[in-house]
Design brief:
Length: about 325
């Protein structure tokens, strides 16, 4: 058992796959929460994003207090600032993601999102670090673009309109940038200290949302949506989502955001499988189209984006 735990803790591929499975589960629950398909009282995207970041204070503040005696947090202002900013971006990226989930199918949103994250990760590293495009990576970008267009296409119903596709892409961009900052934090501080500063960024993002014009009342009136079902769903999603995000960040600390993000493609297949199972037993919860042309459209788009992600990294 000890040998297995040691092997798992050092194998970034297994860690990233497990993290993506947890995040796939949390994304499906998020869809249920923001759509109100179970509770009939949907939580709006910005309040939901606020509370997603707010609980970061329950990690960040105790860690700073304990650091007085155990000295495990690096207090270098430069690397701490990078971690705080990265954490803020990761949380702020959730708002457009939740916004699109309120009125679109989870499988479509996730397919476009998991294509956008590695694409922008590579673009930012190309611009700021000097990574260069090779022939297969140019082909990879074509696959990602075609897959993104395919999953957005409508046939009578479904599909993503231009605004929702843009918001999903924006979410992927912010996530990619946040993970790159997280990677640099881990390089400068190690995983534990870096993760502490990132959770501080989670809380700072919630502060930004709280003072965002017109949002304070929505956030403070969250009690009207806090029925038993929503409370159970919220904490279930946060446990899964936070655990998955932490696992992904740990994998990044072992290698690099570029390599870990290649396995985001696995997430869309987890989503397709889980959505298919849930839609079969309880079709009213997610209301996903999963038959005929639409099913093959989703599968083909997922395959194209998975190939694009793979080629983008493994040239």
């Amino acid at each position: 058992m000890k040998e297995f735990i040691y092997l798992f803790s050092r194998n970034w591929i297994l860690i990233a796959i497990f993290g993506n499975f947890l995040i796939a589960l949390s994304n499906i629950i998020s869809k249920v929460i923001v759509s109100g398909s179970v509770s009939k009282k949907p939580i709006q995207p910005i309040p939901y994003t606020f509370y997603s970041g707010f609980f970061g204070i329950f990690v960040f503040l105790p860690a700073l207090v304990l650091n007085i005696w155990f000295n495990f947090v690096n207090l270098n202002l430069f690397s701490a600032g990078i971690g705080l900013f990265g954490g803020m971006l990761i949380i702020l990226s959730l708002w457009p993601f939740y916004r699109v989930l309120t009125s679109n199918e989870t499988s479509r949103v996730m397919t476009l999102f998991v294509g956008a994250v590695p694409f922008f990760t590579f673009v930012f590293k190309y611009i700021f670090i000097g990574e260069r495009l090779k022939n297969l990576q140019l082909l990879a970008i074509i696959f990602l673009i075609i897959g993104g267009i395919l999953i957005s296409m409508k046939r009578k119903s479904g599909g993503l309109n231009l605004k929702d596709a843009g918001l999903t892409t924006l979410s992927g961009l912010l996530t990619a940038l946040g993970l790159i900052f997280a990677e640099q934090t881990f390089k400068l501080q190690g995983f534990v200290s870096g993760f502490i500063w990132i959770t501080g960024g989670y809380f700072l993002a919630s502060v930004v949302l709280y003072f965002w014009p017109g949002q304070r009342t929505k956030i403070t009136n969250i009690g009207q949506y806090a029925g038993k079902k929503n409370i159970i769903l919220f904490f279930s999603e946060k446990i899964l989502g936070t655990s998955g995000s932490t696992v992904i960040q740990y994998a990044i600390s072992l290698i690099s955001a570029t390599f870990v993000n290649v396995l985001d493609g696995i997430r869309q297949f987890f989503v397709l499988i889980l959505v298919g199972i849930l839609s079969f037993w309880h079709p009213q919860i997610l209301e996903e189209e999963s038959k005929g042309f639409v099913l093959w459209q989703k599968i083909l788009a997922a395959i194209l984006i998975f190939i694009g992600i793979f080629l983008l990294v493994y040239e």
